Amino acid sequence: MVRSSRRSNTGARSTGTGSGLLFPQSLVLGGMAAWLSLIMFNNVVDSGTNIALIGQVLTMEGLIADPVRGVGLVGRALPEGLAAPALYAVIAYQALSVVLLWTATVAHVRLLFGRGDGARATFVGNIALCALAGLALMFLLGGLWFGYWIAMPAVQQVHFTLLIVAIGAMVLVNMPRTTPLTGDTA
Fold it and tell me: Is the model's pTM score more than 0.85?
């Protein structure tokens, strides 16, 4: 079993096996990695659906058709031809995020088996979850620019949910995996 003997400022030492948080941390990271892998796979094999949806956002067709809502925003519309390159950029970002999430999952699973470095696993987990949160923020900010919350409010809810899940997972991954040293008082 790999154990670090470095003392933290809390009078505890970091251990390879942790305090029982490794399983839920691994489960959440692995679940998010599998979920985003499936989304990325779907975007690749059914790109036409998402090109059409991204095209609707970029061209702002839902707002242009409405004589009242979003009239002041329609000047931001872009040509539909940019939908495919936008999707391919999203897929590339998703691929990077997927690799990071699977790497973080493996790092945490290794800790479950007494191998690896807890600080590295937490660091990689943070990077992976920041990439996931960045994806959600990219969708939220891009969508806000094109007023998608007016024409497609349910889509915005999904992106907010993804951001909240990523933040919650960051909290879980950053919870200390420590055990008190013998003779230490807290």
Answer: no
